[in-house]
Specification:
Length: 130
């Protein structure tokens, strides 16, 4: 009887992650002392590390390589900011366009990435607002 109870308890504990799904970790703090906002983003649009950035995601309805990064600090005026972007560990190209509407959100930056053949491609990147 005792073995059966232990087996049932172990099965119940093991099934908890299956019922609740995987936990998503909050993005890490990004060490960018001279940037007003910055983000490190994975190829699928997941926000990996942040400073004053609310979210990042693939741009709705667009092919590979189009992302939307939303700045959370309302004092950052993207119209008058220097926005820099770089690809992470890839031989690729990147363009960062500060704009006022991206996926229906304001205070956003549209980021477009492409591979070395200039084909739109999902690529990890870092973007900073100075």
């Amino acid at each position: 009887m005792r073995i059966r109870v232990l087996a049932l308890a172990a099965a119940a504990v093991a099934s908890v992650p299956l019922l609740t799904g995987p936990a998503s970790a909050a993005p890490a703090a990004l060490n960018a002392p001279y940037a007003r906002a910055a983000a490190k983003v994975s190829a699928d649009g997941t926000l990996l590390a942040t400073k004053n950035v609310a979210s990042s995601a693939r741009l709705n309805g667009q092919p590979a390589g189009y992302y939307c990064v939303a700045v959370s600090d309302p004092t950052v005026d993207l119209r008058n900011a220097a926005v820099l972007a770089t690809v992470n560990n890839q031989r690729s190209m990147i363009t960062a366009i500060p704009n006022s509407n991206c996926n229906g959100k304001t205070r956003t930056i549209t980021v477009v990435t492409s591979n070395y053949n200039n084909d739109a491609a999902d690529v990890p990147f870092t973007v900073a607002v100075l």
